[in-house]
Amino acid sequence: MPESAIAISTSCILSLEMPYSEQLCIRRTAYRGGDGPRAAIVAGIHGDELEGLYVCQLLADWLEQLARENPAGLAGTVELYPAMNPLGLDTLTRAIPVFDTDLNRNFPGSPNGDLPKRIAHAAIENLSGAALVVDIHASNIYLREIPQVRINTDFADSLVPLARRLNLDLIWLHGAMTVLEATVAHSLNSVGTPCLVVEMGVGMRITPDYCRQVMSGILTLWKDQGVLTPDVELPPLDHLPLIADDSNVHYLNAPTSGLFVPVIEHWTDVRKGQLLGTIVSPLQGGILSEVRSPVDGILFTLREYPLVYEGSLMARVMARKGRLA
Amino acid sequence: MSSRDLVLMTAPLREDFTIPCHEIGPAGNPAVSFVSGLHGDEINGIYILARLADFLTAVAGGNYPKLRLAQRVLIIPAVNVLGTNTLRRAWPFDQSDQNRMFPGNRMGETTQRIAYSVLEATKKSAYRVDLHSSNLYFEELPQVRLYDPTPEERETAPLFGLPAIMERSVSPVFTTTLMYAWKYWPGQSFLLQVGQAGSIQLPHCQQVFRGLVSFLGRIGVLEGVEVAEADQEALYFTRECSVRIYADRAGMFVSDKSLGGWVSKGQELGYIYDSFNGTVRTRVIAPAAGLLTGIRRQPMLFEGDLLVRICTRTP
C-alpha cells in the first residue's frame, strides 16, 4: 500500500449462529487513513428506518472518491455501521424479529445474553472511545420529521456545540427520561463518547435531500474533529438549526379516529388557528374534526400514515421563541 | 353482573371500542384491582380473570351461600382489547407496548390514554395485581413477582399460595410499566407470572385461580373461604437464587421436562440439535440442584438464548 493510502475493509463485529444453518453478522466498513481521531456512523437500529442507510452510502461514495483523489485527506478513521439490526431490515420490522424487542432499549447489552444484548454489547465495545458517533434514525412509518438532532438535557453542554455544526434544521432538547437510558446514545454519552442522535424523514422511505443535507454536516464535524484534514473541500453548510425544548413544542393528537388528510406542506411556517388538515370519515363522508395550529410557529412533524386512532399524533408545531441559532 | 366501560374510544373504521371491566361487591373504592391482558397474547391471565369475574359475580348474587364478598373488587381481564382480538402482544395499530405507556396521559397517544384510565381506576386499591404470561417462547411456573418490595408486600406474597415468589429490582427499562406506576401510591402491588403466552396451560390457570380465591379469603375481602393451611410452602427466591442456562449453540432445543419439579445437579434437561443435520450439539445439564421454574418452549434457538431457569434454595 502506498504511503497516505486509505485502507478500506468490511468486517463482522459480531458473528452469531442462527437456528437453522445460517450465520448472522453485524457488518462494519472501516476507512483508515492517518493516526487521527476515529468517527462512526450508526444506522439501521430500527429495521423500518432506512434514511441512515442512504447516508452511509453517500459517505462511502464520498470516502471512495477521497481515497482516489486525496487519500491524505483522511487524517483519522471512519467507521460505517449501516445495519445494526439486519434481521429487522430483512423482514421490514422495527424491532429485532423473533425477540420482538427494540434494539435501542437494550444498551449497553451484555456479551453473554441473547441476540439483542449481544448486538448492543458489540456496538458499545466497538464505538466507545470514538471522537464522535452519529446515530441516524428515520422517525417511524407514521410521522415525517425535518432533519433534527435530539439531545438529552443531561448532555446538552457538550453536545449542542457539535449539533450546531451538523447542518440540520432543529436541535430538540429533551428532558431526562429514564426509559431512554437504554439507548445507544445514552450509553455512549454516559461513558464519555459523544453521540448525536439524528431524526429525519419517515420510516421505510428515503428522503434524498435530507440525506445529502446531513452528509454535509457530518463531513463538517469530521473536519472540525480532525478526522479530515483542513484542506479537504466540503459541500457548504446551508442550514442553521432552531432550538426547541419542552416549553415550545406543541403536540397535536387526534381528538377522534378517522382518516387524517393534511392541507399543508411539511416544514412550513403556520399561524395560530391555521388549518393544518382534517380528520374525515371514509364510512359516512364528511369532516369529523379540523386540525388547527395552536400557535404561531413552525410545523416540524407531520403525519405520513393517514389512518388515526383517537390520540394518534398528527403534527408537532414549534412556537417561535426567537431563539434562532 | 356489574360491568362498565373503563375506556370508550372511537375507531376509524369499525364500531367504537371499549375496555370493559367488572366491579363486583359492595359500593365504594375497589379494595382489590386485578389487571391482565396488557399484552394481547397473554391469554392465561385473561382466562383466569374472566373466570374469577364469573365466580365473584355468582358469590355476589348469592349462589354460594357460605361465601360473602365483603369489599369491592375491580377486574380488567384484557386491557389490550384489540391485541387480544387479533392475537398480538403489542397494541396492533402502532405496535406500541401497552405496558410501556404508564403512567399515561389523558390527552396523549391512544395507548397513553388507555394507560391513564387503567391507572386511575386501579391506583387507589389497597391490593393491585397484574397478571402476565411470559412470552410465546418461554413457560413460567406460576409465581409472584415482587419488584423492590416493601416489607408488607413480602409478607403478603405467600398468601397467593403459589409455588414460588421471586424478588427483582426495578430496572430503568421498566419505569414505564403499570407495576412501577402503582408503586407511587399507598397499597401493595403484585405481578403474577403464569405459564406461556399464546395458549392456555390449564393446570397453571387452575392453580392460580385457586390462589386468587385463597388470597381474597386471606385478606378478608371474600369471607367464608376455607383456606387450607396445608397449602404448599411458598418458596422465596431472590435474584441470586436464580440460575439460568443459556444456549451455547444455536439449533433446536427439545426437552421433556415440566415445570415445578426439583432437579438435581448434573441432571439432563434436554438437547440442542443441529436443525439441519439432526446431530446432538449439546446435552443441557442442570448446573445446580433446584426448582425448575422456567423453560423454553419455542425450540428454534439463537446462540445465547435463555433455555432454563432453576431456582436454588440458597444463593
TrEMBL record, chain A:
Its cofactor is Zn(2+). Pfam families: AstE_AspA_cat (PF24827). InterPro entries: AstE_AspA_cat, N-alpha-Ac-DABA_deacetylase. It comes from the Bacteria. Keywords: Hydrolase, Metal-binding, Zinc. Residues 35-221 form the Succinylglutamate desuccinylase/Aspartoacylase catalytic domain. This is Succinylglutamate desuccinylase. It comes from Oryzomonas sagensis.
Automatic annotation (TrEMBL), chain B:
It comes from Oryzomonas sagensis. It holds the Pfam family AstE_AspA_cat. Its cofactor is Zn(2+). Keywords: Hydrolase, Metal-binding, Zinc. Coiled coil: none annotated. Residues 31-212 form the Succinylglutamate desuccinylase/Aspartoacylase catalytic domain. CDD domains: M14_ASTE_ASPA-like. This is Succinylglutamate desuccinylase/Aspartoacylase catalytic domain-containing protein. It comes from the Bacteria.
